[in-house]
Design a protein that fits this description.
The protein has six helices and no strands. Helix 3 runs parallel beside helix 5, helix 4 runs antiparallel to helix 5 and helix 5 packs antiparallel against helix 6. By secondary structure, the chain is mainly α.
């Protein structure tokens, strides 16, 4: 409470002591108001720093959009590999794969620098795990298709697909874990 207002009230109460108004009551009133203001400010600050449902939902949706876009680009790379196998021309895979890998890196940087809201730390870590594993698969597994020669045997191609299939199982597990954490995050934040 501003001191000048307090002084005015105190003066008024002091001048009217005949009505039994005591300075003790004035001090109690001042303390009550101060505590009330402190609680109001405290809870206002809590509500300012706590995430809104809308902010939490926006973060979650952003991660889902990232996953969808990564999936779409991965599908395009798969189509490119399929065409390369059919045409026996593996030279066109490298630029598509590198572009995809660069895209995954940019998504990872974006997710790393997102502001956490509503306890999103675990959700972001799960997303980074998915992106990291996807990049590893693209860099290690799918890059092997670039090394194939036009006279590659079907068995050589089949071996590469088996390696990718094995690693895709781990990726699927990471995606399932992300979805589980995302559902918990949504429930926690009320959407």
């Amino acid at each position: 409470m501003p001191e000048n207002v307090y002084a005015q009230i105190k003066t008024a109460y002091n001048s009217d002591c005949s009505k039994g108004i005591s300075i003790v009551y004035l001090e109690m009133f001042r303390t009550f108001i101060s505590v009330g203001v402190a609680f109001t400010l405290f809870f206002a600050c809590l509500s300012c720093s706590s995430p809104t449902k809308k902010e939490a939902q926006k973060l979650s949706n952003t991660l889902l959009v990232i996953n969808d876009s990564v999936f779409a680009r991965g599908k395009a790379l798969g189509v490119c590999i399929g065409e390369a196998i059919n045409n026996k021309d593996y030279t066109k895979i490298a630029p598509v794969r590198q572009s995809y890998e660069d895209y995954i890196d940019s998504c990872g940087r974006y997710v790393k620098h997102m502001d956490d809201t509503g306890g999103s730390e675990q959700l972001r870590r799960a997303e980074l795990a998915v992106l990291g594993y996807e990049k590893n698969m693209v860099h290690n597994d799918l890059a092997m298709f670039e090394k194939l020669k036009p006279d590659a045997r079907p068995n050589d191609i089949s071996i590469l697909f088996q390696i990718g299939k094995k690693d895709a199982k781990r990726e699927s597990d990471l995606i399932s874990k992300f979805r589980e954490i995302q559902q918990e995050y949504a429930k926690k934040n009320g959407f």
